[in-house]
C-alpha cells in the first residue's frame, strides 16, 4: 500500500521537519512552518520490474573529452561595477538572484539596467509583482529612464514563462520572486511556490536564452528568504548592502565567473551611481598628520582597496581597561595588542584602546594586523605616520610579519593611489619587506625623520 509522507517546511529558511514547530531551530523564526503537499511513495516505484533499476533503464553517457567548449554570450548591463560583480555582464539564459533589505535600491538598480539594455536594442520584460505600473513610471521619471520597457503585473509563473517564450526578451526582471505563483502549489510566497516558481522561470530562461534577474526578500539575518534550494537553482546570487554612505554589491555565487567580486555604488537623486575608485572614496576624509591613522591595503572578496585603520589610546577611569573594536576581528586585535606589549614593551594596561576601520566596512582580513599594530603604536606614542605610507601584513605571536593573500594586487592598488612607500612582509617583488613588528616601527619612523 502506498505510504503518504507529510513534512513541514520553514517558509523563512527552508528547514524541514516531520512535525510543525513553533520556532524554527535553524533561523529562529516564529510560526513559520507550512505543510508541504503530501507525496506518495511505494507501489510500482518500489517494485523491481524487469531490467534496470525498478524497471528504469539508464540514459546516454557522454565522455568529457567529446564535449565542446563554448563561451556563454554576455550582454553589458551598462553599469561597469555591476558587470564586474557578474563576471563581465549578463549571461544569455543565466538566472541571477539579487537580495537586499527593503529600500536599499534593488528596484532602482534594475530599472537603470533595464533602461541601458533597452537603449542598446534589447527587449526588456519587467514583471512588477509589488508595485503598480504607475509607481514604476514615477521612479522611471525620477531616474530619467526613457526607454520603452515592457511591463506586466501578471505574476503567474506559467504566464511569465509563456511571455518569455513568445517575445524572447534579452532581459527579464521579476520583482520579486516571492510574489510569483504556481497553480496548485499552496499559498503565494510559500516554500513550494517560491521553489517551483524559481524552477519554472529558470527553465524558461534556459530555453529562450533570456538573461533573468529575480529579486528576493531577505530575512532578519540578511539572507534570502525562502528555501535554500532556490539559491542552488539560480546561476548567480548577489547581495546589496549598505555601508556608511555607500551601497556594496557582493557576489556570493557565480557559475559564470569568480564569486566574491565587489561593486561599490553611491545612492544619489539620479539613482545608484558606480564608484569607480573606492580607495579614493573611502580615504577622502582621512586626516593627515594625526597619530593613530594608518592607510592599509586590504582585499574584500576579490577586490583590493585602501582603507583607513584608526586607533585611539586614552587613560582609563575604570578598574579594567576597555577594548573597543569596530569593523575588524576583535580577537585578532587582542592578539596584536598582546604582541605590542610583549615584543615592544609597550604599556597598554592602563589605557582604553579604540580601534576602528573607517568607512563602515567590516573586513575580517588578517592582512590588516600590521596596520592595527602601527596605528595603536602611533596613538600611544603620539607620533603620526608619513602621509605617503601604506601598510599590510599578518602579525604572528612571535611578533613576526607574515605574507598575505593577493600581496601583489594590494601593492599595485597602493601604487595607483600614490602611496610609494609600502611597509609589507618580505618576499614581495620590488619592495624591501619587514620581518617583525619591531622592525616595521623602526622603518616607519626612520622614514619620517628622513
From TrEMBL:
One Pfam annotation reads AAA_25
**Can you tell me which residues bind ATP?**
100-107
* Entries under InterPro entries matching the protein: AAA+_ATPase, DNA_repair_RadA, P-loop_NTPase, RecA_ATP-bd, Ribosomal_Su5_D2-typ_SF, Ribsml_uS5_D2-typ_fold_subgr, Rubredoxin_2
All copies of domain RecA family profile, residue ranges: 71-218
SUPFAM superfamilies, per this entry?
Answer: P-loop containing nucleoside triphosphate hydrolases, Ribosomal protein S5 domain 2-like
Give the Gene Ontology MF terms in alphabetical order: ATP binding; ATP-dependent DNA damage sensor activity; damaged DNA binding; hydrolase activity; zinc ion binding
The alphabetical list of record keywords is: ATP-binding, DNA damage, DNA repair, DNA-binding, Hydrolase, Metal-binding, Nucleotide-binding, Stress response, Zinc, Zinc-finger
**Signal peptide stretch:** none
- What is one cellular component GO term in this UniProt entry? cytosol
Q: Please indicate the residue ranges that the annotation assigns to the motif RadA KNRFG motif.
A: 253-257
As for what it does, the entry says:
DNA-dependent ATPase involved in processing of recombination intermediates, plays a role in repairing DNA breaks. Stimulates the branch migration of RecA-mediated strand transfer reactions, allowing the 3' invading strand to extend heteroduplex DNA faster. Binds ssDNA in the presence of ADP but not other nucleotides, has ATPase activity that is stimulated by ssDNA and various branched DNA structures, but inhibited by SSB. Does not have RecA's homology-searching function. Plays a role in repairing double-strand DNA breaks, probably involving stabilizing or processing branched DNA or blocked replication forks.
State the domain notes.
Answer: The middle region has homology to RecA with ATPase motifs including the RadA KNRFG motif, while the C-terminus is homologous to Lon protease.
Which HAMAP family is this protein grouped with? RadA_bact (MF_01498)
**Mind telling me what this protein is named?**
DNA repair protein RadA
List the source organism.
Deinococcus radiopugnans
